[in-house]
Design a protein that fits this description.
Shape: elongated
Structural class: alpha/beta
Strand order of the largest sheet: 3-6-7-2-1-8-9-13-14
Low-confidence stretches: 495-500
Strand content: 15-25%
Distance between the termini: 13 Å
Number of domains: 2
Number of strands: 20
CATH architecture of the largest domain: 3-Layer(aba) Sandwich
Bound molecules: adenosine-5'-diphosphate, alpha-D-glucopyranose
Radius of gyration: 23 Å
Length: about 500
């Protein structure tokens, strides 16, 4: 079965969040199950700079299509690239006018969305559809698996070809975050090269705008998201971001599959970014990682201080506005905070202010830094993820493996992956962290206090750590669920040759 995996991020080359980690983890797992997988990505400068080989495949088609005009793209080629350390071939859309820029995939150096994002990401969807039509005659996908709004137009173009009587590969769309929808002014619709009838409330029109997210939800054969709880939450108004009605209508085609972890990158037993390694067998050595973190983040190197760590984008989603509100109490009770993050300017400032107010107890690094993220993950005692909403969340999964107990809000994938330290759960050995409900300072503080109480009972704390560290959220398990979806869509397709 040939699977084209369409996405905008891939760790370690292009990353703004967990989407990149999924791109690095899921496709190789699908390959291990016998799928023939290739990626398709925009030809971002970072990818071109790293590619060890690049061969031209074809020009992206333009001009006329059965329903009218193709998207109004600048001349663009499709190339097949090899990336160092990544085992799968990656198709790149080579369109320097669209992708060769300073900044990140979505925003310029000024922090503003690129003004031509609709066109930039329509090119990605268009390339996927063209591959589905045989643009590379040596490799024609059976399934096109699209991720987030960036790839959202692919299912729409694919449907348009099918409406015109052409071949139709099967489409699966995975929602990693419904809050980012790729909405653009309706006036830009004409340049996208889609059938006129698609700009309709039963198509991709969303309150007068074009919505890439809605397009994918409307036109993909199957929709998945990254945890079972989030799959339910997005069918309700509170977390539906205006698309809950459509998601309810498509409920029989919607399911939640938990993300996995790449344990080659995230494992304290082998992590080369740490000063020392540890595992369940020598858990006491985690203390060295803690001391290293305290020194690096300007914290007093006290072994008995409970260190709360944060590694996060600083956006409303993550609920971190609550953290400054609980700091006085957290510090008064002898706790410390080590935070690595960047994003919202006001939140950045309030966290920096807190680090000045509580020298030696609150250490804040504003920025994005892979190595420091491992320092925090290994050195902290608790990883804080108090999100307002969380489709899956990866940092709490990393925390589990590092014996850094997650303290999370009971939403989305956090609810599905962390077992609260209630007395019952402690008693039966299932507890892995601390879970709270109310998105308020009091809600967070009550969980912080519970963590502090358990920390004063070192034997019980260590038992929870050991249990957490032994759990596995394997990409192979996730890949098996995706494969079952592909197979349900195309029962006759050649089955993988390796054992499933
Ligand atoms: P999201 O995708 O919503 O940001 P996830 O928990 O799924 O949340 O994934 C976040 C990923 O980004 C993790 O791999 C995390 O380690 C990483 N990350 C977030 N912020 C930073 C940062 N400031 N520096 C380094 N890595 C970060
Ligand atoms: C998104 C979500 C996060 C999820 C990640 C990978 O960025 O915010 O919860 O873990 O995608 O699926």
């Amino acid at each position: 079965m040939k699977v084209l995996y369409v996405c905008a991020e891939l760790f370690p080359f292009v990353k703004t969040g967990g989407l990149a980690d999924v791109g690095a983890g899921l496709p190789p797992a699908l390959k291990a199950l016998g799928c023939d997988v290739r990626l398709l990505m925009p030809g971002f400068a970072e990818l071109l700079a790293e590619a060890t080989s690049l061969s031209n495949v074809a020009q992206l088609p333009g001009g006329r299509v059965p329903w009218g005009a193709a998207p109004a793209l600048p001349a663009a080629d499709l190339a097949l690239a090899t990336l160092p350390g990544f085992e799968l071939p990656v198709y790149l859309v080579l369109a320097p006018d669209l992708y060769q820029r300073r900044g990140n995939p979505y925003v310029g150096p000024d922090g503003q969305d690129w003004s031509d994002n609709a066109l930039r990401f329509s090119a990605l969807g268009w390339a996927a559809a063209a591959l589905g039509q045989g643009l590379d005659p040596h490799w024609v996908p059976d399934v096109i698996h699209c991720h987030d709004w960036h790839a959202g137009l692919a299912p729409a173009y694919i449907r348009a070809f099918a409406d015109a009587g052409r071949d139709k590969p099967l489409t699966v769309f995975t929602i990693h975050n419904l809050a980012y929808q790729g909405n653009f002014p309706g006036a830009e619709f004409v340049q996208l090269g889609l059938p006129e009838s698609y700009f309709d409330m039963n198509g991709l029109e969303f309150f007068g705008q074009i919505s890439f997210m809605k397009a994918a939800i409307q036109y993909a054969d199957r929709i998945t998201t990254v945890s079972p709880t989030y799959a339910r939450e997005i069918t309700m108004p509170q977390q539906g971001h205006g698309l809950d009605g459509l998601l309810r209508a498509r409920a029989t085609s919607l399911s939640g599959i938990l993300n996995g972890v790449d344990y080659q990158v995230w494992s304290p037993a082998t992590d080369a970014l740490l000063p020392n390694r540890y595992d369940t067998g020598n858990l006491a050595d985690k203390a060295l990682a803690k001391r290293d973190l305290q020194i690096r983040f300007g914290l007093a190197p006290r072994a008995q201080a409970l260190v709360f760590g944060v590694v996060s984008r600083l956006t409303e989603q993550k609920g971190l506005h609550l953290v400054p509100q609980v700091l006085t109490e957290l510090v008064r009770r002898g706790g410390q905070l080590a935070l690595l993050g960047q994003g919202d300017g006001a939140l950045e400032q309030s966290l920096v202010d807190a680090s000045i107010q509580y020298p030696g107890q609150v250490g804040v690094r504003i920025g994005y830094d892979e190595a420091s993220s491992h320092t925090v993950m290994a050195g902290a005692d608790v990883i804080l993820v108090p999100s307002a909403f969380e489709p899956c969340g990866l940092t709490q999964l990393y925390g589990l493996r590092y014996g850094t107990l997650p303290l999370v809000r009971r939403v989305g994938g956090l609810a599905d992956t962390v077992v609260d330290c209630t007395l019952e759960n402690l008693d039966d050995g299932s507890a892995t962290g601390f879970v709270f409900d109310d998105l308020t300072a009091d809600g967070l503080l009550s969980a912080v206090r519970r963590a502090m109480v358990l920390f004063r009972r070192p034997d019980e704390w260590a038992a929870v750590q050991r249990h957490a560290m032994g759990l596995r959220f394997d990409w192979l398990a996730a890949a098996q669920h995706y494969l079952a979806i592909y197979q349900s869509l195309r029962p006759g397709a050649q089955l993988p040759t390796r054992a499933v």
